[in-house]
Amino acid sequence: xxxxxxxxxxxxxxxxxxxxxEFKDYSTYLSEEAKVKYQATVELALVKALxxxxxxxxxxxxxxxKAVKEITPEEVYKEERKTKHNIRALVNCIQHKVSxxxxxxxxxTTTSFDIxxxxxxxxxxxxxxxxxxxxxxxxxxxxxxxxxxxxxTVQVGRTHGQHAVPITFGFAIAEYVSRLGxxxxxxxxxxxxxxxxxxxxxxxxxxxxxxxDQPESFEADVLAELDLEASTHSTQIVxxxxxxxxxxxxxxCFGVIANFSDDxxxxxxxxxxxxxxxxxxxxxxxxxxxxxxxxINYENVKSMWKEFMPRMMTVYQDQISEHxxxxxxxxSSRFIPEIIVGLLSSVNRLIRVGEKLVVxxxxxxxxxxxxxxxxxxxxxxxLLASYGHPDAHEVVRKLTLEAEETGQTLRKLVQTKEELKPxxxxxxxxxxxxxxxxxxxxxISVDKTEKIVKSWSNKLDIELTG
Length: 466
Ligand SMILES: O=C(O)C[C@H](Nc1ncnc2c1ncn2[C@@H]1O[C@H](COP(=O)(O)O)[C@@H](O)[C@H]1O)C(=O)O
Prior knowledge:
Radius of gyration: 30 Å
Order of helices and strands: HHHHHHHEEHHHEHHHHEHHHHHHH
Number of helices: 21
Bound molecules: the ligand O=C(O)C[C@H](Nc1ncnc2c1ncn2[C@@H]1O[C@H](COP(=O)(O)O)[C@@H](O)[C@H]1O)C(=O)O
């Protein structure tokens, strides 16, 4: 790895947002060093497949294997200053390390993007398996635990920022268990679809067909060394949609955690105060208002999403390549690793904060109590209708106005109004209890929470402790 003072880096991902994470893991797949190493690995797979077919000797493959292990980004970049072509620079560097006999087989019949696209698919696939999925599953597990812990904690459901009808806090979290679960599956599936190619300069196997009657089978051999499949059809590049879909699902996942963060942020408003971020003893909320405890972590995640979500537009633009290719996707696609690190550093932040999430049950009760008597307007009107009242919604709407004016509860008003009394008398015990205890009007929040957690823990193979 290039050792240098990270504070001299321009990009805040390096000097600020991945500092507390396992930066080493990110760089294994996503650094420039990794990119060069993976490209060298593809060059090696090519020579290995040539050796298997007897086009070159096993000794050549052994030499290339040794050379590839020694390749550094520094030497490739130094060579690129001469060649002004990055893949030719890599090829030259490998050739410098092998015998005259081996030199001709490096990059044999291939074009640069046989190497570049295949290497990217390989590293993004491995990054998904080793880094992205484990990190996302850690957050998923944490959300599952919070959902179960809070499955019976009654909270007022809010639509349009207004009190609607009750749910439980666990049920609200289960929404994110499910949405995150879906995107985890999508990321996994789309990463498995990432493909390689060894199809030459325009994708028609022109060069490899000089040596192989079935060049597609040679392509399959090379890619099998890397556990990859071939793009269905290639030009000079792999069909872009595999990577488009992969980054789309990463971006969609980012949207899910940004929405979650937004919800958590709003629940920390002074007037709501239902959750809180853990505050260290020495932590400062505001540089001028010492009492403040700001939701800085959830704000950060939304801010990061604002930076990285629009980058999907660039990925969509990279779908366009003239005829058999142009180079306008080259520089832009080099930034995809930043999207991944942006997402992962946000996920890691949510894990750190979620582990110490403070849930203020008293405030949840207090907030619920504010409109406790009014939230039964829905079940009241539906019950009246179910017992035959022809204009139940309008009657209850007017009752809510009267209740607000007089401070009376809805159920009291129903019981006292001559025209409504007969309906009240038909309500059964369970129905009356609901109207008397609005906190029981939570539908199947508890069961649904359990069901969601169970199904995602099975689907994603996440074992829950306790
Ligand atoms: O196999 C080939 O190379 C075929 C060739 N197409 C190219 N394919 C891949 N890379 C190429 C190509 N052309 C240039 N380069 C080199 O790509 C580098 C682009 O640098 P940057 O814009 O920073 O992403 C930068 O190093 C460029 O020199 C063609 O003519 O079709």
